[in-house]
Every structure is written in C-alpha cells, then in structure tokens.
Queue: 2 jobs
Job 1
Amino acid sequence: MSHKFRNHIKSNIYTTTFVSEIDKVIYTRPGRTAGTAITRALGKEVEEVSRPYFFKKGTDSWLENITDEEIDKYFKFTFVRNPFSRLVSAWRAFASRGKVNKNFESFVIERGVGHLLYENGEFTNDHWFPQFNYVQYSDGQNFIDFVGKFENLKNDTDKLAGKVTSFSGINVRGIDTTYKEYYKNGLENIVANIYKKDLELFGYEF
C-alpha cells in the first residue's frame, strides 16, 4: 500500500487539487489556465482537497487516507499553458492589484516578496509555480491521464466532456498573444531557464 499521490500533494502546497468522489475525477489546477471556469464546469460535487495544506490549517480526510491503488481508479487531468504567456498573465493580474512589482522585468529578476522568486529561489505564488508539478512526481513518474492545453481550450474541453460525464463545458475567450512584448533585454532567456522543464515536457517555446 503506497501513498505517493497523497505525499506529493501535501509536500507541494501550491499544487491545487480538486476531487469528485462521485465521478471518480481528480483535477490538478495550475493558476492562469482557465481553472476557475473548468472547476465550475465540473459541478458542485468537487472538493479542493489541497486547501488545508496550502493554508496550513488542518488536513483533508480524503487525501490523508487515499492510497495509490485507489488513485488508479480515478480519471486524473490538468490543463497547462505556455509558461511565457502564463507568467505575463499572472503578473498583470497581481500587479493590477498592487500585489507584486509593477515592472515586469524587476518582478522576474529581483528576489523576495512581490517577485517571481524568494531569495532562496523558491516560487512566491502558486500562479507561477511550474506546471510539471501538476503532472509528475518528483521522480518524473507521470500520474495524469489527460493534459489539456489552454491554447487549445475549446477542443480539449470538448474531449474532456467526453470523458467526464458531469463536465458541462465552458465559454472560451480569445487567446491573448501580446505576451512577447513584455520580454526585453534577453528576459525570455532567464524565464526559459526557470521554466525549462515545463517547456520541454509540454512542447512550448517562446
């Protein structure tokens, strides 16, 4: 009896995870990937089992007791996004509320609260936490059955609806393609190094 999935979610508190015990569905939700709409479309039966660990208040009984043998019976999915585009989207959302440095280059390069990384190199927020954490364990083993892409949201959510009976579908907006204008002075190379694994695993490029 193993608890690899449980331990991964508990030790990566930014890995937001929703579960429907009725439909046997697990959704790992990276920030800025249409997650709010997808969660809503899954219906009222989903529960955010990772929440107590993120806020460091209590535990979740489902997550504490679930075994990997039981996890295998669930349909597990996530949606990912181009790291360059996702980072700009997250920064703009937080900068507009005065939560982070309002200069994108400074946000990326400098360290500490209000920036991409803390002084020790750890990520300061789940909205820019690398997406491979929502798909793989630390040893590289994949635990996800379906990876949809934000850039292909309509087609991939249609596919999802064919696999998850409770999924009601979402309204898809146009994709913002202006992110490249924020990358100047070789900043894209710094970001590419930070998100190297995401770029390789999901086939993205600048």
Job 2
Amino acid sequence: MDVCIRKQLVVTCSKDKTIRIWNYATRTLEIVSGVLSDETLAVAFHPSGFHVICSLVDKISIYNVLGQEFSSQPRTLQIKACKEIKFSNGGHLFACAYGTNAIWVYNFYTEDCPQFYQCKGHVNRVRCIDWFENDTGFTSCGIDGNVYYYDLIVQKETLQRLNEKDFNQKNVNFTSVVNLPGRPFESFVVGNDKNCLLYTSDAADE
C-alpha cells in the first residue's frame, strides 16, 4: 500500500493479482486494474498521482494512470521479486529493494541506475525505505535488525552509506521505519518485538 502525497488517493496491491486505487476521503474504489499475469508484491504511488509502480514476481511495471484506468502498455524493469518500492518526495527518483540485501535507486524518467545508486549494507531482506525530506537520501530497515542511512551525495563520492549512524537491534526483525520531519537522522522504527523505538544517531529509546 502507498499514499499519494498530492491527492486523496491510496494504491494497494493484493494476492488477487490486481492493483486498486482508492479515495480515502470519500471511501470509494476509483480504479481497478485488469488481472495481472503474476501476484503483485509491492506498489508505489508517484507524488503526482499520475503514475504507479508495481512489482511482480519477475519484473517491475511502471503504469500511467489515465483517467479511470491504468495504461495497457507499462514500462518494465527486469527486477525480480522486489518487495519494497518507494518514490522520492519529488517523484524524480524511486528506490527498490534489490535481491536479498541491496537497494537500487532509479531515475524515474530515464530508468538509469548508476553504480553509485546501488546501495549495499544489509545482510538480509530490506523491509522498509523512507526518503529524507529533501530527497538527498533515505533510511532503510531490514529483518537483519539494522537501520541504515544513505546520503546519495556521499554515496556517489565514496560508495558508502553513513556508517557512523548505523543502528542494530539484536534478535529483532524490523518491519517499518519513518523519518521525523525537520529532525535529520531521527526515526521511529518498529519490529517483531512489538516495540516502537525512537532512534537518533546517538541513542534509541522506547
């Protein structure tokens, strides 16, 4: 599920092999895709509300939202079994969990993914990605119990994340992370231990 930044819309995907767009203000279903060839694994809404990215078993499909329907000829990227996708706040970039432990950042308009946008570090599956307010990077968490911060400017120069801000919680599978507005490198993170942690680069408190 993902929420559109500029419209009162939510997009969902399901095991029924469809993508659906809902209006959360009127509580109505607005658009339903045709039945897709494979089960949908993840979905992301462009901030404008005019594009949707959906991950299938063997690829990622990029749809235009045309009036009351999805485009019949989506663009595709050969990325298999991606289970997390997130648009930047400006919509010019999107990040997707790649393979078992990496995050690749693509230019939405050109579909380029240079080497310095191929972010590594996790040792197990990435569960959640949340962009910084200014789109210069993002925070991620995974079932390896790690929270990582990636600054794309630093990443371009060194091919390294911000290692000094790493956070690890042993024996916890993190499921979601969200950055605090106006407070760089401070995030709420939750996991299967049923705790909500406020993490800063210096400490974490329940």
